[in-house]
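Anyone opening a protein record will find just a pair of labelled lines. With that in mind, the following record should read easily:
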Amino acid sequence: MNIDDLHVFTYVARLGSISDTATALHLSQPAVTQIVRRLENQLGLTLFVRSRQGTTLTTAGESLFREAQLVLEQYKKFQKQAAYMAGHPARHVTIATYPSVVSNQLASWMETMDEHQRLQHVQQYNLTIREGSYDEVHQWALSGSAQLIITAEQQRIQGFHATSLLEDEYVLVCSRAIPAPIALEDLSQYRFVMPLSGCKEWIAPYVRHQGLRIQQVMEVETIHSTLAMTKALEGITILPANSLSEDWRRYFYTQALPDSIRRSLLIQWAPQHHSDPLLMQLVDQLHTFATTSYTSI
């Protein structure tokens, strides 16, 4: 048994899928299956029940899953302490972006990067994530309080280096209590929650251009709060497709918008950071994770 086997075991337990684990960890499905079987043989226990519905933990698997999480967390602390004692502490990096990016996209990328670092037995980055308005993110970059920022193409800073991450599409997000699909001319029948993130830049101009009549209830600061209020009010909102995580999809369905609203997301950094190899490695990793995890409607 080794630490990588435990890591793969916990990943299968969380995702409930061999194939999804293989995709997330950049392994083949046979490799993941072999790791699970090897672990089961070493322990003399059946950890998973495999069916058409997925891969679920047995009673023994559930118990060992909790213990494995504790072991991996302790191992992560061990790595950090060893690196510190060797004079190579993890690099601290601040990434700033919008709430709509943090809520699902960045969280998913960070999970993938964390798992990647565990497999490589190295913790290279201690990250701080700051979320704010378009103007706030812009100012954090100029002041140097954030080394990397993820913004829309329209917020590109002159003189900064940048690379594209993905193109995000806004969609109509509707409570499952509302009959689907909704015709745009019928939007005024339902309560609309306006997210402040992207409102001024994309949503409000789109509503005006389409000549839509909406029954606006309130403006909400973050994506998570927008979804919570839309669920509570059994209403509708307009959000980036990738901001709707799997946890929320049980409460909503999405519809494409005619004359769709799209925003191109890119990552930016100041010229003085361009010669920093560790920071550029992080940029490359984020670009890889973004292009392989994009969800379209």
Q: What stands out?
A: The chain is about 45% helix and 25% strand. Residues 59-85 form the longest helix (27 residues).
